Amino acid sequence: DGLVVSEKVKNNNVDVKIPKSELEAEEKGAEEERPRESDSNILDVSSDYPRDKHISIQRHLADLEKLADLREDEKKPCPLCPEEKFKACYSHKLHRHLQNLHWKVSVEFEGYRMCICHLSCRPVKPNLAGDQTLSKMGAHYHCIICSATIVRRTDMIGHINRHVNKGETESRFITVAPKSSYNLVKESATDVQVLPNHSTPQKTDSYFNPKMKLNRQLIFCALAVLAGERKPIECLDAFGATGIMGLQWAKHLRSSVKVTINDCNENSVTMIKENCHLNKMKVKLNIKEEDSDEPVGNGEENSDTIEVTKMDANVVMHLRSFDFIHLDPFGTSVNYLDSAFRNVRNLGIVSLTSTDISSLYAKAQHVALRHYGCNIVRTEYYKELAARTVIAAVTRAAARCNKGIEVLLAVALEHFVLVVVRVLRGPTPADDSAKKVRYLIHCQWCEERVFQKEGNMLEENPYQQLPCDCYGSMPGKTAVLLGPLWSGALFNTGFLRRMLLEAVQYGLDEAQSLLKTLVCEAECTTLKHFSTHSPGDENKQEECGVYIRTPNTSAESYLVHGKRKSEEVLRSTAKRQRPEHSTEHPPFYYNIHRHSIKGMNMPKLNKFLNYLSEAGYRVSRTHFDPMGVRTNAPLAQFKTVLLKYSTPTYVGAQAEGPVHLPGEIHVGEELPAATAIKVEEAEEDDKPGVAAAVFTQSYPTHCAAD
Predict the structure, then answer these.
(1) What is the tens place of the pLDDT at every residue in 98-157?
(2) Domain 183-287+303-453+475-493 sits in which CATH superfamily?
(3) Are 187 and 212 in contact (CB under 8 A)?
(4) What residue stretches are annotated with the C2H2-type domain (predicted)?
(5) Which of 223, 404, 575, 610 has a CA between 20 and 30 Å from the CA of residue 349?
(6) 563 three-class SS
(7) Is 590-648 in CATH node 3.30.56.70?
């Protein structure tokens, strides 16, 4: 009879019969409402397929005028303005309106113009009465890429630039294939794709800094040395970004290493995989609910396979053990030290790069106290102070895991602080390392410094530990307590020499010059006495319980690399290494310009090093400061030698030579405070009329602030 029984509606338990024609009408109405909803939801961000672009996005002004359908005899409204804002008008007035208001302030992107829109597309905040009045409807722009609505034009330009920097140039409204936004960078025979804003870590997913090339070369040399001790080793790049560092490891060391590159950002993991394929490396994924990208083989690891993980750095270091771990986060790395030392293997290496130089270089002292638990001030040796601050934090983190450390390398340059340490498992090495974390007494007048003595007993006058007498001659408190800091050596000479050999083998020119300086600094000698194979290291074939391959070592003296040594061998090694602590390089350095004498010309730096060496002191240059001098001479003797070989500024043609001091003060004798030094030039017989000159200098109470 034209009736169909619908679903049972529980309304008084009565079956409701609805005519079939009414049901069909309701279904048609529902189908008509769905496209209307989709049309009104043009700005849906979650949609992946291309839609029709918004009417405010046009290529030419003529296209915008076509929307208005300009006619001379009829009044037409503006297609981008509501009637309450702009009433209908004739064509000449509407043309000026479209050109001056909408087209002139548009934002251009790949040939399209995003004109300003005044329609009710963007929700506005309600007024006090709770009504959204049309008069308060604000102007806005429609993003051609993500369909977002932006109010200000400058914000819209920045919004588009962020899309471009992230590589998101494909518009959901444009069906044309987008251009590739990746840049190709080559470093150490390794190609990587980077985004245009790769040098801005806050705004990119794949950070790549070309200025850190030297840092990457030093880490590669350290890994190459470790790979020569035992094979194969498992190494981790905890913060991969573009994967450049892990790719260099796998490409040059091949089967000696098993590389794992980790990053918690999905876009970075995608780029790492693309860079692996770009360098013809196979990718083995270790991401949850994902299998290997390519099959490796019949249970055998391919030498050209890199494992890529997408996890937090703390998680991946907690789950697995590694022989070599490198940490290079954005900023401080103290948040990852506990995880790094938890599962690192015995005699393994942990390297970390800290880029929070504002806090480490004492520009933000409260941040250094918060992150490292260390009190520091700005000094002439602030870079070495930063390196010792980081090592102290590393020592405490390793000691919490019953592990000790030996510092192999500590570098502090303009952009980063690099620390490379070897891990020694056991409570005894942990205790020995923890004892080397001490406080530093720093004089604020002459900048003399000395580490506090061991022991827990309080001293009646801690100023007596300083070699200077500023406390007795200056009013008030003259010294400050810095730290806790690492008081041990910053370099291992044998390890640095092997790093230099690896740098020469792989042609790393930038690292070679720095490593030569580091070797001279570790031995506290000048560069002219430098040699690649020193006679003292030929017989020293053992380092931290590991036998090292040297040119004069026979094959019978090698041990199987990678196996742990017994406790007796480790104890005997420690006993043999005790006498060598006296040959450690002296802590800290002096800047020759900082302690220059007013009115005197200083000698050349290399000549001054020779003068200090002839006076019986150990001396070398330092990479921390190009005008720094690392020496075991006290500051007073340093100034004495500097004064003796300086020349007065008014003697223009006088050659460099010693200044004869009154009373024949010799090197090694301490000058009294506020000594007046009078230099008189006698008249010569053949040159009469030369006036005598007098130079007065207050010494050694020289304020460091001057």
Answers:
(1) 888 888 889 988 888 899 998 888 665 555 555 544 444 578 999 988 878 888 889 988
(2) Vaccinia Virus protein VP39 (3.40.50.150)
(3) no
(4) 143-163
(5) 575
(6) coil
(7) yes
